[in-house]
Amino acid sequence: MTPDSTPTVRQLLAFYLEAGVDCALGDEPVDRLSDPVILPVASEAPLSQPVRTIPAAVPTLRGDTAPAPEAAIHSAREAARTAPTLEVLRELLEKFDGCALKSTATRLVFADGNPQARIMFVGEAPGREEDLEGLPFVGRSGKLLDRMIGAIGLDRTSAYIANVIPWRPPGNRTPTPQETQICLPFIQRQIELVNPDVLVTLGNPSTQTLLSTREGIMKTRGRWFDYDTGTRVIRALATFHPAYLLRSPSYKRLSWQDLRSIAKALEQQVPS
Ligand code: URA
């Protein structure tokens, strides 16, 4: 395509498909570049000072509106904080409309496994199979995760599995930092309620988000961190995401070292 040639519809659709836009969500197009409604938060602030504003709502892909990120993060924190049990947390998430990913996903993918487990694994976000089944890690990378945890004598009856983001991003795109921040209070509360002895973050996004590090997975994998729930410090290990291991099998050797380290930690912290 030369700069002055107009793309054909076919070329445009091919471009969208490559970018992960693989389904239509509404009959009418939505102008996402139009200004969101801006509501002043500190209306009594002196005029000489900058007024902090929160957009009340932003348009979703469906053409309706969702709370703007700051408001959504605030309501996510409030909702998650009040959940006394995992069941209530799940119900709150089902009702939560602050994350636009909910409108494009088929269903919520909350968790799988045993809530009483001593070990919890957290991935990034559901993919296509997870979105269809409503369970985390059931696709190809999930099958590898099952084999990995099976190698140290665990399965889904003795482990708990969740994701930082509980809705599939369209076309499996990377969740935006805003989407991650909106969903963060829910996974933090989920970890607090499961209260495992060992937390394992799978891959870079989960590790950086939950363990508050900016270092990449090549540096963080195999390292133990302290994860502070506010009421207890949990030992947390970062390791490779199984999807990465499927693409780069030579790293399975290091992943095995991490699994041995996890097994040892569980042995050392024998419950009283
Ligand atoms: N990748 C993830 O991070 N989570 C899933 O549930 C599936 C694939």
TrEMBL record:
Cited Gene3D superfamilies: Uracil-DNA glycosylase-like domain
GO molecular function: 4 iron, 4 sulfur cluster binding; metal ion binding; uracil DNA N-glycosylase activity
Residue span(s) of domain Uracil-DNA glycosylase-like: 110-260
Keyword ATP-binding applies: no
EC numbers on record: 3.2.2.27
Catalysed reactions, semicolon-separated: Hydrolyzes single-stranded DNA or mismatched double-stranded DNA and polynucleotides, releasing free uracil
Keyword Electron transport among record annotations: no
Keywords attached to this entry: 4Fe-4S, DNA damage, DNA repair, Hydrolase, Iron, Iron-sulfur, Metal-binding
Any one of the GO BP annotations: DNA repair
Protein family: Belongs to the uracil-DNA glycosylase (UDG) superfamily. Type 4 (UDGa) family.
Name used for this protein in its record: Type-4 uracil-DNA glycosylase
Source organism of the structure: Bradyrhizobium erythrophlei
